[in-house]
Description:
Blueprint (H helix, E strand, L loop, with lengths): L1 H13 L4 H13 L7 H7 L1 H13 L1 H9 L4 H5 L10 H12 L5 H25 L4 H31 L6 E7 H4 L9 E8 L15 H17 L10 E2 L12 E3 H10 L3 H7 L3 E4 L2 H15 L5 H19 L14 H15 L11 H10 L8 H21 L11 H11 L4 H28 L2
Parallel strand pairs: 2-3, 2-4
Antiparallel strand pairs: 1-2, 1-5
Amino acid sequence: RLTEIIxxxxxxxxxxxxxxxxxxxxxxxxxxxxxxxxxxxxxSAQPELLxxxxxxxxxxxxxxxxxxxxxRTLEAVIAPEFFTHLPDLDEYESALRARIKQGATPxxxxxxxxxxxxxxxxxxxxxxxxxxxxxxxxxxSYAALATACIRVLLExxxxxxxxxxxxxxxxxxxxxxxxxxxxxxxxANSDLDLVLIYDFDESCHESDGRRxxxxxxxxxxxxxxxISALTVPTTxxxxxxxxxxxxxxxRSGPLATSLASYRAYQDGSAWIWEKxxxxxxxxxxxxxxxKTAIEMLIHADLCKSRDPMVTAWGVLDMRSRxxxxxxxxxxxxxxxxxxxLLDLEFIVQYLLLVHAHAHPGILASNTQAAISRLxxxxxxxxxxxxxxxxxxYLYGSVTQILRLCLNGPFDPDTAPEGLKNLLLRVVxxxxxxxxxxxxxxxxxxxxxxxxxxxxxPAHQK
Length: 461
């Protein structure tokens, strides 16, 4: 069978982004393939599968590495329903719980969680690569997968923690997602911006276990355990990177925050950039009463009346600080370039902050959903909604592919042809010059909106 498909294999791999890397990755994949797997018969019968393998091996080192490490992941791609069904949050959560039950020790369930997470990240990535998943769908699916992992691992960590330290009277803890997870806009390498918030009976001062801890120490240690469960590399690799800097007082603040302290901080100490971040906050794990209390707290805070000019000045100051630190490297720096994704998100977050007092129905943690609601309430400048929605689609599509296929910045002068062709296919552009022109035109339109909506009002302060 191998001799039959070699000519076709050479043709397919020669057209990938990096033919040499594709052959090397394919050889590594074959060397780890379990015995009895009739791969070449399968490839002979399904040539489209070979093309997909070529794209994986030659275009996305991230996916190639996952497949080489765990060859049986390919079985999911072969399944008839693979390209038609995308699991939702409940399905991810149920499947992970069933997988975790196979582990008898914390080390085993951490390994099982990593295998599960990597397998499903691979599946989402393959759907993106094959063109059967839109960028927005991929972002939501990555976020649903991450949410399932947080929920199940939090339960595991809490159970183990209670065995040693007992319970806090009336104690409950929830995970607040921020950033890309909060907005359900994750990509292949997104980290998790998290804040842990707890509540308890204030008459309680320490836990009731054989190794009691004070309330603050209890939840700080529990938070550390959850972070480790999500981030520590095991024999099965890593799962996610976690960023806790959006918690009250940032790096100098406690790892976990009580509900009362979080409310007091938002009422009196939070900076404008923290209010911008709050727009995308969404409780993703924990008991429903606490999640509801957090949602109500956030909603009430976002619906406070704000001076538009003062708020605009705060946003502009934050944008200038980011530009000083990170700069921008041209049209392909989709996030940082002027008129790029960051400016677009700031426009949306600013408008939500200044208008939610009179129009609470506009609030949404997802950028595209928020734009649609702002437009429906007549809170966008004339003819602004369409270019903003188009920018979300264009920036999201390009970002998803680049994050999936590259570990560094994209350089059109050195990028492999296969990757360029993949980008053109995803955004339906005839060539790279047209795509660059489209990006530049979109960035100019968004930059003009940023000036009109934020920069000019800020200077009138």
